[in-house]
Design a protein that fits this description.
Number of domains: 2
Largest sheet: 6 strands, mixed
Low-confidence stretches: 284-290, 300-304
Distance between the termini: 56 Å
Strand order of the largest sheet: 1-3-5-4-6-2
Helix content: 40-55%
Order of helices and strands: HEHEEHEEHEHHHHHHH
Structural class: alpha/beta
Oligomer: single chain
Number of helices: 11
């Protein structure tokens, strides 16, 4: 293939790839996150990886590369180019493939089953456009216990983290054996850790009147029966969830208990959580039930 034909073919290949990216955007207009390339740092922050190790050269399936360290806004989830300024570099890589020019190996991070491009975004994009099955890469792996795969978007990843945290905390506290089916579900990562801190705080105050240290599972059961369920009953009686679509009783419980620090400021740092919950329950009986939505919006700030 002569130079003129190669230039023409590369230009045509880029136009086709960019057109596919536009079509993909239209097809996913109701769920735009489905077409977005994952940001390595966003995922790393969400997943909270535990260790990092160099795995050397590997042949990696291109379909498993679903993220990028720095170019996640330039390509979509299928590594199709989204922007015109990518054309020159993209076409030069495409011509190198057509001319059988050896290119440097790309560099990838791996978290779970997802690969993220450290260096070589254009090479991955062109390789995918050329129909290649795999690509040689230097791989550095970051370990995590959260289940991940390359088909996930950020919403899926958040839910996977939430599920992991839920299983971990409920088993740690033995709450998985006593809670009602379908109870205690959060819609954001990190909430189960907050819940655990509530249980630990409850355990501290119970232990103040005990000669022997009680088990965390015992404190968890007491917290569930004496703090969580009474507040949830108030939430149900007032039909609060109807005012916060997509949220759960557990979400509202966390937001309500967060107001505890206001009571500590008023009554002192040793003001117990149990008394705080009782005081809020008492307050609910007056101004809360008159206008629960107005009361909540004044008292709470249920934003992520």
């Amino acid at each position: 293939m002569d130079k003129h034909m190669m230039n023409s073919q590369a230009s045509s290949d880029f136009n086709k790839a960019k057109s596919k990216a536009i079509f993909n955007t239209v097809m996913n207009i109701l769920r735009p996150e489905r077409r977005q390339l994952l940001s390595f740092y966003d995922v790393k922050s969400l997943i909270k990886t535990s260790s990092e190790s160099y795995k050397g050269m590997q042949a990696v399936k291109i379909e498993d590369i679903a993220g990028s360290e720095g170019r996640y806004s330039d390509f979509n989830k299928a590594f199709l180019p989204k922007k015109e300024h990518l054309r020159k570099r993209w076409e030069s890589i495409d011509k190198a493939y057509m001319g059988d020019v050896n290119l440097p190996s790309i560099m990838l991070y791996k978290i779970g089953s997802i690969y993220f491009v450290r260096d070589g975004n254009h090479r991955v994009s062109v390789a995918k456009a050329q129909g290649m099955f795999s690509i040689d890469a230097e791989v550095t792996e970051l370990t995590t216990e959260v289940k991940l795969n390359s088909t996930m978007d950020m919403m899926d990843l958040k839910q996977s983290v939430i599920d992991y945290e839920r299983n971990l905390i409920l088993k740690q506290t033995d709450l998985d054996g006593i809670i009602e089916e379908g109870n205690i579900f959060f819609t954001a990562p990190g909430r189960y850790e907050e819940m655990l801190q509530h249980i630990v705080g409850h355990k501290y105050y119970i232990n103040m009147d005990q000669e022997e240290e009680i088990l965390l599972s015992v404190a968890a059961r007491s917290w569930y029966e004496n703090l969580y369920l009474p507040i949830v009953k108030v939430i149900r009686d007032a039909s609060l969830l109807s005012h916060f679509p997509g949220r759960t009783e557990a979400d509202l419980y966390i937001w309500i208990v967060k107001q505890w620090h206001y009571l500590k400021e008023k009554y002192g740092p040793e003001y117990p959580l149990e008394a705080a919950a009782a005081k809020y329950t008492q307050e609910f009986g007056y101004s809360f039930f008159k206008n629960p939505l107005k009361w909540l919006k004044q008292k709470l700030d249920p934003e992520e």
